[in-house]
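tool_call: predict_structure(chain=1)
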Amino acid sequence: MEISYLVFLYTAEEKSITKGAARARVSQQCASQHIRNLERKLGTSLLCRHPFTLTAAGKQLAEGLQHLETEERQLQKAVGEIISGERGMIRIGCNATRARLLFPGLLARYGEHCPKVRFTFFFGDTVELIRQLHTGKLDMVIGVNQQAQPQLERIPLLEETLFFVCQPKLVEQALPGKKVGQRLTLEEISRLPLCRNLPESTLTQMLERQAAKENVLLEPACTCSDYTYQIDLCQAGLCGCFLPETLLPLWQGEVAAVWPLAGMEEKLHIDLICAVTAARPRYEKVLIRMIRQAYQRVEK
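tool_result:
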């Protein structure tokens, strides 16, 4: 706050120019000069000196300055907390279904360490989320099969296998005698109605590479970026879909059945990707550590 306003505020609160000057750590003569300068600037008298009383304009100004001083202190505190890493905003990009499994419990624990940090989540495929990370719209991404890039830090979290899930009756109709848990080739799966991720997704591209090796054409009956909705369609008996290993807990119930994929050697690599920086805030470091610990527990 400008010194003239501060001197007037302290004088008004102390009801004395002498005490106001002492509080502002200036001489009484200097304080009087600041108040006169302020009155000339505003074009009105702010106080009567003998006896000491505030004019209507002085009362209004003092009240406004009190609010301003409170806001200034709060702002200084908030900035200090940001500098120290206590307060901030983290913008995370990830798959919506993975977020559903990971973050509710993790954020509850994180709040015990960093209660003043707010979160914004962006859901999508790794390719699009990495583009947003490059443009500064995101702070970190939980992505799949991301290649190393000069300006990005890649922290490996987990390596997982891909499975096929479907109601047993659909498999029995297309592949008589095939028992639950037996390995399925992509050629066998191609005879079933499929729901699959969008064409540009990392998982779909991985499947297409394997299908090309086996000379198989996978034509989905529908495409959907949300694993949860794919699972809903499978549980309704409409199709089968491909699920990463860590998402299998969502595939439950009497009709749930899981088939390993024959010949599928490529795995999904789950990584935490952040922009390279020399000064990462403490609250981001805490979150990165907790995400790594969460995936380490999954791996075990």
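agent: Residues 84-159+269-297 form a domain with the D-Maltodextrin-Binding Protein; domain 2 fold (CATH 3.40.190.10). Proceeding to next step.
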